[in-house]
Amino acid sequence: MPAAVDASKKRKSIKNAGAPSKRRAVAEDDFADTLSTIEKLETEIAEGRKHYNNIATLISMLNVDKAAKNPDLAVAVSLCRVFSRLMATGTFVESSRAAENEKIITAWLKERCLEYQRALLVIMREGDTTSQITALTLSMRIIKERITHIPGADNNVWSTSFKDIVEAVIEAHDGQDLQTEFITKFLKEFEDVRYHAFGQISEYAAIRRSSDVLDSLTTILSACDDVPAEGHKFKNFFATPTATNKRITSVNSHKKRAQEAWLAILRNDLSQAQRKNLLRIMVHHIEPWFTRPELLMDFLTDSYNAGGATSLLALSGLFYLIQEKNLDYPQFYTKLYSLLDADLLHSKHRSRFFRLMNTFLASTHLPAALMASFIKKLARLALNAPPSAIVVIVPFMYNIFKSHPTCSFMMHRVINDKELAAEIEAEGMDDPFDPTEKDPTRTGAIESSLWEIETLQSHYHPNVASIARIISEQFTKQHYNLEDFLDHTYQGMVTQELGTGERPLKKTPVVEYQIPKRIFTDRMLEEDGGVDSGPGSFMRGLWEFS
Amino acid sequence: MPPSQLKQLKASLRDSGVVGPQQSKKQKRQNAKTGAAAQNRNQRNAALQAIRDRFNPFEIKVPAARSKFEATTRDGNSTNATRNNRPGVTKSLGEERRRATLLQEMNSRNRVGGLVDRRFGENDPTMTPEERAAERFARESQKKMRKESMFNLEEEEEEFTLTHMGQNLAFDEANRDDFEMGEMGNDMKGEDSDDEETRKRKRFIDEDADEGDYVYDPDAEDQPDRKKSKAEVMKEVIAKSKFYKQERQKAKDDDDDLRDELDQELPDLFEALRGMKVPAKPEPVQQDLDTMNPERAAMLQGPEKTDTEKQYDQRIKQLTFDARSAPTDRTKTEEEKIEEEAERLKKLEENRLKRMRGEQVSDEEDNEEDNDSFMQDDDESEIDDATAFGLPTYEPREELAVEDEDDFVIDDDLVETRSNASLDMDGSDMEEEDLSDDDESEQSEQEDELINGMSLPAASAASTAVAANQTSDGKLAFTYPCPDDHEAFLDLIKGVPSQDVAIVVQRIRALHHPRLHPDNKAKLGRFAEILIEHVSYMANEDEELSFALMENILRHVHSLAKTHPMNVVMAFRARLREISNDRPLNLLPGDLAILTGISTVFPTSDHFHAVSTPAHLCIARFLGQCSANTLSDFATGAFATSLFLQYQAVAKRYMPEFINYVLNALCNLAPTEPTAKLGFFPSRKCQESVRLSPSKKVTPRKLQFRDITASPSDSQAEEELKISLVTTFVSLLDTASDLWAEKSAFTEIFTPVQAILNDLKQSFKSKTFSAARDPIQSTLDKIASHLDKARLTRRPLLLHDHRPLAIKSAIPKFEENFNPDKHYDPDRERAEANRLRADIKREKKGAMRELRKDASFVAREKLREKKERDSEYEKKYKRLVAEIQNEEGRAANDYEREKRGRQGKR
Fold first, then answer.
1. Based on the domain organization, do B206 and B265 belong to the same domain?
2. In which element (H, E) is residue A324 found?
3. Does one domain contain both A325 and A403?
4. Is the interface score ipTM higher than 0.90?
5. Which among B601, B617, B654 has the least Cβ separation from residue A494?
């Protein structure tokens, strides 16, 4: 029982003197005393209104000081019980016929209740994890009681008390666990809580917020990923809504609220990392909530124009818009082509990008010159790429060659013009491809050849080399499934070569037949006439081993 | 209504030309002359037979149903077969055969004995009498030719003696000599014995004379009473020659005996001549003990004499089963040896080149398999495209060139003694040989010790001995146990000065040579693994790293790799795995040492190799992903890059990570940041600047292995290290441009390099870098010339000069002469199985029919026999009855007569 423990701790801090055994006994006594006191006060409140002053006593016992480090949770729980009971008995309901003193009492009680709620909020913001969670549970409980037992209070409750709770949750100090608790226990459980939370968040995020806050907002929002389908019947309510409130049972209004919340966040001042993160979850978590995805357009185009990894990530969202909403993106391929830069093949979003690019370039109606530019640029990049990227590029090219046979001049070009042939024979040639040209239709790539890939046929890794060799073999295969080539890594390749454990090899590997005379030193150099040749001489020439 | 049978017969006779207009005499004569008559006769016989057959409708089986219309799908053979069916003939043939076989069997049942005709070909109906006779003759002569027994003296004389008038022609003289010799021999034997023999022989001859079995009688010649027949003469001659042959043999044996005796006495004779006494013979066993096989020596010295003898007998018996020793190869001359060695090396080099190109080396079958694995991407059923490539290609294997497997001498230059294990390595070859000889003598000493003392010392004993040895006089122990793990090895070499570790290693190898004990092979394998571990341990831990020692150990590992390839390979792979799992991006000095070791122990040029391929990957991964922030990081990178170039010194493969790393490093080390983006390599900035910013003049030096770990002491040293790194990287680029000059994308690879080097040159304008400017300039020049050449040699790619693929045909395969009875099953195995099944069915049916027919035949025969028996019985019975009735009748008649007589009397 955490409350009990806390209580005893508190006592301990007060009374530090005395022998250990004695102290424990005293602490236990104190704890028991407190419990009994609370119980007594609580029962007295239940007996009648003359003991209502005990509420004030209890609230004072709640001990919410500035630090709010050690709130007495037992008191908080008992207070919650007290208020719930009072609400259930209808003491909070104000009737017009009631006497003046009745009204005064009700107002006083309401004031105490608000005070209690404020105290809970303070605990949520500042307390330690356990008390935070308890406070959250208690305040949600109070909300529930208020909505159920006080007629006509729900709008008010949702817009004030709940707003405070949401804010407290978001701004809570060390609030990870509190947020998770809020998400799992309330947000995901109850659809009306979610609905109202969306509203509160969109209001909250309308103002510029700090990046920590935005992070937690994103976490909370992205946790709500079960978008209600069309015609979904809402059943899980935290507090049964009044019949008049139609909006809470319509899918559209839910979506609209969520959309507003997301938009509020997207419009906020996002850091680069946050932007990337949002882009990453864009397709699966954000877009489904949007009834009007075109609202995302600004955000996506801005991100796409930002360049680098952000552009890569924005691609998928943009593609969604282009596909679904007829978004017209001028110079799309030029932009796509410009994404092929030195870092692309080393980026960790490489496979994501290739998946999308495969979709974008799938059309057979694209001009061959454009495709050739993409091929040639990728080939150039492959010269500086890790093996896992080369392994994707070559089958990708193969597929393009299959669908755009005009491009296959890049692999096989017979020069029929006699003069030109003679000229090339005499003077050689430059690569007609212009790597600096921005427009993919004007790079001259289709006049070029894939010398890069031919060079990669002598890649140090045998598997990569044999993949590079497919472009010089007959194109008998219809299509390479790109997905099979995408997610290779150094670690994977090494593991594949080395295996995970000691398994005997099928064949005995060859051992160099000649034992070299020297490896590091100048051993027996005289024998070779003082000239260091033979294996390893290169290393010895560059390095000094002593 | 068809015409009558007679008319039909006449018509058919006329048609077939059997009867016709009579021929004139002239015609007949002419026909007889040309041989047409005989031909005509044959024709006529055939025609007659055909007519006979046709007119005997019961001989031919008529098919049950009327023949159907001709159709293409009908089986032509079967209709023909029915037309030619003649059940009567076949039935009678079968009957005949059964009578010949089954009936014989039946009759001979329950019988024992009898005569079997074993004459060759007697009951073979396929042979004509002439053939039979010829075959028999051939067999007989063969039998004669074969020399059945070495003591059979007959045949030659019998076969090849030429006679004239009963006299031997050719061997007359020899016979005479023999005869005279015989006479002499007889004389020598003495009178009485001679007489005795003569008498005996006479009696013998008398007894056997009529049987014609002649034995030579020397006296027989003296009685030329009657003229001998030719056969008799022959026999006499034979007998004579046999006799003399025997005599000769005997005389020779006697001579041999005598000579042996004399030979034995010869030493005595010498002794007598010299007048000295022979010293007692030394015991041969004692003397030989050292040189002979120790096992045998132990056996001879063993206490149990009888045991020894028994063993000896056993050995002798075993020896009889030993294979005969084959002739050994001729001892080769020195030139031949050299030539052979050169040949071998050439072959190995060729194999290496083949492996480099990824071809198969030894077995052709593997080659096919390999092709298959490469062609798999055609396969539609391939599920994962990548696995077709990801599958490890078949690694080529080559017969290991194991030279030192059976030689006790470890590779000569691995043998280190104390003098040349020390760091001054100036021992010439001659010295080395001497030393190794010394070493061998040492080893023999060790062996002596082993023989005198106990067997191999137990590990603990040895280690204490080691300790004792070392403490007492600082000398090394001669025996070391083979360590089981690295800790044990470290214990073993604790206190051994590092230059002596080589000797320890070598002694362990010598002591545990596989020939000395069967377990040693495994032990040495383990030892090789420990050595590999030790190499990385040394590089990591040793403050005063002795490269001479490391080199020595690596060479030991290499030599062990030839005999224990699997252990060494697995150990290296384990190290690589550890690197890739624990620290792929910060290599330790030990890892670099391991990678260096791989570059010497294994052929790094192979297209695929179980060790060097992952080693490449490790280097590439490090170069591609490591964070280079400090100078020692860059030093590690420089080492790794130079290692890579050494790996590819022969195969000249391309590594993108190399270029990326070197260019990045140069950009980071350059005194000023490059202004523009210079290439397609991803740039990585160091977190803190490592740019060159010297205050004084700096000169590049050769990089040291130590730079990888140690950080420079002061800023001047730091700058010096930086500039040395720059020059090293530049020279690496220089080498790389040489290596990859032939690559078709050389221009694309080295244009950024050129740009960066130019940039570097610009930033090195300050006087402080004057020493580093020259190498940069020379590299730039070289790259520029290579670029020019690359431009000149650049041609558009012509990769698809393949033979155009045949368009896949969708036309069904037509069979030219389709036969519905035949099965055109494309699956050969299934077709074969079906055929066999049909065969079995047919055979089974045939066999059942035959058995049924046999049974009915047997039943019929039995019935016939029974009937015969019954009728015989009946006959006999009737005869008896008749006899009895006869007798009764007679008796009745007599009685009647008697009665009548009596009545008459009355």
1. yes
2. helix A309-325
3. no
4. no
5. B617
